[in-house]
């Protein structure tokens, strides 16, 4: 049975059952990834940025003879933001290839269509069944990134300490657990805005104005995801010359996610990229001692960033692709094949 589902009011048993399915999916498709934990999972699924909405459906087994609710075997949610719906679908490996994935997408697509949105986007992990699945539904690839993973047990900490000090004169490198301090929010947002102009076109929106940045940090905290920031301050102007962001999610606290790393155009060539990333890893070592890995996503074309990551010890993992589809065409195609 497929029904609309609200994580805010769901029972703890449903949240636990969804976690089991998510971990079965990870074990099947991404066996090297750490399993997720239940901490803040409800908040992770429920909390959104102001102006955004997430709508979810679950596929649940029928209750057993004693009336106990059945397991959740599939889930879809769509995040409505701007003019696009961003989709995520999960089907338990034991019930795949029976049409459930397609059914779940149809539920979400109909709603996105009714709400007047034109397109649906989705992140598709390379080398998993999701690629053939979305292509069979008419989604087309828009953009490919490479995920890389750093195993912290292989890091040469002495070398890293040296890298972290190798920044040109006139810059001060600072560590800010929790997010940038209020007095730097505007300068921080300006640094992000500049790069947004160059690298626009991603599903994951960057926060480029001060209010959006505050909202985004607040949303991360509510979802149980702890942000850490290292920035390079240009002492003469007080401008943020470079920044790097890592988030440690309560749901998988042994593997952190690298978010944006930015060096503002005028400040390139002074070793900022290498120094801020090295400083971040050194700080995380004491702030998050349970951490064993950091993962990051980069465009293939971003050779400078890939070079620094390789020096730090990151190993290329797999492709991470963005696909999209016109909603009306998708609904039409799915209805026609029912
Ligand atoms: C992608 C996914 C949702 C598909 O679910 P599903 O219930 O198996 O999909 P369906 O049965 O509706 O398949 C629809 C069509 O997609 C295509 N397809 C799906 N899986 C496929 C596979 N493994 N190989 C080739 N084609 C496939 C087929 O054309 C299929 O139609 P057919 O079975 O009539 O040939 C499921 O594999 C899944 O949950 N993957 C994990 C997705 C994810 O988010 N991962 C991120 C963390 S790893």
From TrEMBL:
Residues 1-162, 182-337 form the N-acetyltransferase domain. Keywords: Acyltransferase, Transferase. InterPro entries: Acyl_CoA_acyltransferase, Bact_Acetyltransf, GCN5-like_dom, GNAT_dom. The keyword Transferase applies. Pfam families: FR47. PROSITE patterns: GNAT (PS51186). This is N-acetyltransferase domain-containing protein. It comes from Micromonospora andamanensis.
